[in-house]
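Subject: Predicted fold for Galectin domain-containing protein, 663 residues

User T.R. writes:
Posting the sequence so we have a shared reference for the thread.
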Amino acid sequence: MPPRKRLGRAALLLAAAAYLAFLLLFELPSLDLFPSPSSDAAAGGAAMPTHRPRRRELEASSSSSAFASPVLRRPATAVSPAPASAAAAAAGALPIFSSLLLLPRPNATATPFDGTAAEAFAAARPHLNHLRAAAAAAEAAEEASSSSSSPPPSAPTCPTSISVHADGLPGDGVRTVELPCGLAVGSHVTVVARPRAARPEYDPKIAERKSGQEPLMVSQFMVELVGTKAVDGEAPPRILHFNPRIRGDYSGKPVIEMNSCYRMQWGQSQRCEGYASRPADETVDGQLKCEKWIRDDDKKSEESKMKWWVKRLIGRPKDVHISWPYPFAEGKLFVLTLTAGLEGYHVNVDGRHVTSFPYRTGYTLEDATGLSLNGDIDIESIFASSLPNSHPSFAPERYLEMSEQWRAPPLPTEPVELFIGILSAASHFAERMAVRKSWMMYTRKSTNIVARFFVALNGKKEVNAELKREAEFFQDIVIVPFMDSYDLVVLKTIAIAEYGVRVIPAKYIMKCDDDTFVRIDSVLDQVKKVRSDKSVYVGSMNYFHRPLRSGKWAVTYEEWPEEAYPNYANGPGYVISADIARYIVSEFDNQTLRLFKMEDVNMGMWVEKFNNTRRPVEYRHDVRFYQSGCFDGYFTAHYQSPQHMICLWRKLQSGSSRCCNVR
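User M.O. replies:
I've generated the structure tokens; pasting them so everyone works from the same file.
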């Protein structure tokens, strides 16, 4: 081998040896070859950016201060979290409870809202006393059980089948059968009934008639799966609305309409008008959404061509029209069976599949705790089978994973960038657990973001007891001491503002619901587009929205005298800056804060007044703070069920912000 080649090879070998020595001496010792258990646990979720180095945390003895908030009636002087013992002593309440108080206003400035709120606070006192007494009794029982080996009490069970006959139901009006633990996949509900003869419809909203015109004849009934209303004043959710209209509606033909109503918002209806769904359309468990009951052989299919030749041979001049009967007829007995499948509900009438309805976002099968029947129908019997024997309200341990990995970390000792207050109802155990296991994990990776649930009391003592137990374990719940009501949701929003001002001072404060999925990084990016020294109000804005003056959601001129509301962001998710939150708390302390029954509109009123009297506010509108569900590229997605929460989180960890359309 020539000397040059030998020298070249020797030089390469020396360079390789030098590089290997460098790796062994400098790089290898810095590699984490044996990670600690804590780092493994932290790696359970996807890596998330931390905006600052980790702050010094509160000592263990004061970790429960996350739930003690100063009394709102006092001036806002504290700007940092207080130790649990001191805060609890100042509030005179359990550490997990907010000390929000609504002081009576002078008669000249009092409103109907003040009376409703005062009643809700008064009604909550016996429940608070019961929780305190139960806590003392539980400690005594725990001490006694430590010396005995008696088994723990079992959760209440529900029947797996229910049978109701006509004599057990009212003859008219809304007839309801309770399904205590809801439904499960494979559950069946069978209704044997008879539609009544058609009657004249005089409701002008349905039948507009000219003078002397005959009244419109209608025959229709509704079979609905309904849920338990979460708070007073809110209509129970209609999980499934099945509405056969035998005499038809505006189409003039018999029709079956299906829909759902989640938190008082109707979805898009599914109408079956006699024609089969196209095979290319989405099916439900392999079955068509609509079966056909009208057959028209005018279509020139291969089958109709053959029949055309046969008709030519036998001398029949016209095409044959075959009509399959509409599933329901006036005065004719029918047997309707409703089945819960994997992907949706299936309706069979007299043994024949008629329609299928996919599950809608926001519901689980256990939510369907009642069967409601109404309209022009006489019921013979109702039978439900294959029902589950437990429910989240009775057995929250099925939904609450008492694991340390889901507990909230101690509060930072310094102000944070974003505080998120999540409105929730006491019985929403599954919803809160889904939030902890999805987007709330982001807050565990950053000391610059804190999130807490804000919950009012329930009318059932056992639900409140489980809520208190959940709050004490997860340390992420603030219980506002009044009886929950739809018209009083705004008081939870005030408690959120107070928490973000006094307990954990934050630069920005966000409010959302427990069925809202939040992309925290995207929300922060939107907020940071505004100069940090400006006041800001970010969300999906409503401009020049007019109040309804009649109907269920009517607003009187006494409540709001103007013809349009101030600009306001939709309630499922919006952000305000800290100066606006401080203003809200200050006005509330001084008993000058205007209180209105619609929470998101009320926030718009407060921001408008701040904008007019204190300093200009920059309103930032973005439809990606989505109100009506989810669309790809969302910042917040509303009406998401616990299953959808987990699905969206998994997609987000894989880099996708697409929606989940599966159950």
